[in-house]
């Protein structure tokens, strides 16, 4: 079973991965975005880490809900409300149980991804976060390692796609050939989950 | 008619200058002396381009006179931030609405309409209708 501390460690591990990969995320965001994805997420997850240490929510649901709210208020770019909605919806779907099972987490994450799709209007194949998150959620039934691999494959598979959402969509065909920064950071979020689950 | 019943308008842009200038433009075109509460929420708190949930919440609270608040945005994170705040439930005043309108023209239409004492539905309708003003 997964408790509040597991979810806090997931967020902390995400913050560490985002720190490590911030330059790469920003570099990916340069040709097709506004070159701030790495620094925006760094600011957001650093704030999440601080807030979780300070408030120490005692359930998985409250942990993710707080993380989501902090992202919405601190990121400053579209990834704030998108990641914020992902975590908040996932947290709300987990309810107030002190511990949750892997099946519940998979189900809750699906609700979170649905929330992202509703908020941003993106569908699979639009070259967005959804292209990493959806395969990860689908693979979660086969374990955390499978979810991580599916998210990474999903992120890489955005390269040949043409962006249909966000600023990159203004570039039309010129968005083809670049890996999507949001799908890449989404793969980091899932990689952090697998890392914590395997620890 | 009492001033406190006017609909409030919040203008959310990635740029603090754009939000403030559009607010000034809309109030100017509404007659200059209008008492419609209009608040810009542009850029990030420390400067720089982006959207700040805190500035949006503060702006909405500052223009709430109990008659509803119409929020107009430019694009991208501005739209998504307002939608996420509305979904949160307690971050914005009751009866706050994201209005789907062109930023500049919609802001002018919204402020002019709000200045007549019209309600939130009419303010929203006027702003949305601004999409229909063809220029060629």
UniProtKB/TrEMBL annotation, chain A:
Q: Which UniProt keywords apply?
A: Kinase, Transferase
Q: One GO MF term, please?
A: glycerone kinase activity
Q: Does the keyword Phosphoprotein apply?
A: no
Pfam families in alphabetical order:
Dak2 (PF02734)
Query: Would you tell me the Gene Ontology cellular component terms?
Result: cytosol
> Domain named DhaL: which ranges?
5-195
| InterPro entries per the UniProt record, alphabetical | DhaK_L_YcgS (IPR012737), DhaL_dom (IPR004007), DhaL_dom_sf (IPR036117), Dihydroxyacetone_Kinase (IPR050861)
Is Transferase tagged as a keyword?
yes
Q: Which GO terms describe its biological process?
A: glycerol catabolic process
PANTHER family reported for this sequence: TRIOKINASE/FMN CYCLASE (PTHR28629), TRIOKINASE_FMN CYCLASE (PTHR28629:SF4)
Protein name (Swiss-Prot/TrEMBL) = Dihydroxyacetone kinase subunit L
Q: Which organism is it from?
A: Streptomyces naganishii JCM 4654
Automatic annotation (TrEMBL), chain B:
BP terms from Gene Ontology:
glycerol catabolic process; phosphoenolpyruvate-dependent sugar phosphotransferase system
Question: Would you say which domain of life the source belongs to?
Answer: Bacteria
Q: Which organism is it from?
A: Streptomyces naganishii JCM 4654
The record ties this protein, via PROSITE patterns, to:
PTS_EIIA_TYPE_4 (PS51096)
* InterPro entries in the record: DhaM, PTS_EIIA_man-typ, PTS_EIIA_man-typ_sf
Keyword Transferase tagged: yes
- Residues forming the PTS EIIA type-4 domain are 6-136
GO molecular function terms noted in the UniProt entry: phosphoenolpyruvate-glycerone phosphotransferase activity
Q: Which SUPFAM superfamilies match?
A: PTS system fructose IIA component-like
An example of a Pfam family matching this protein is: EIIA-man
Q: Which Gene3D superfamilies match?
A: Phosphotransferase system, mannose-type IIA component (3.40.50.510)
What's the name of the protein? PTS fructose transporter subunit IIA
Transferase is among the record's keywords: yes
Provide a GO CC annotation, any one.
membrane
Provide the alphabetized UniProt keywords. Transferase
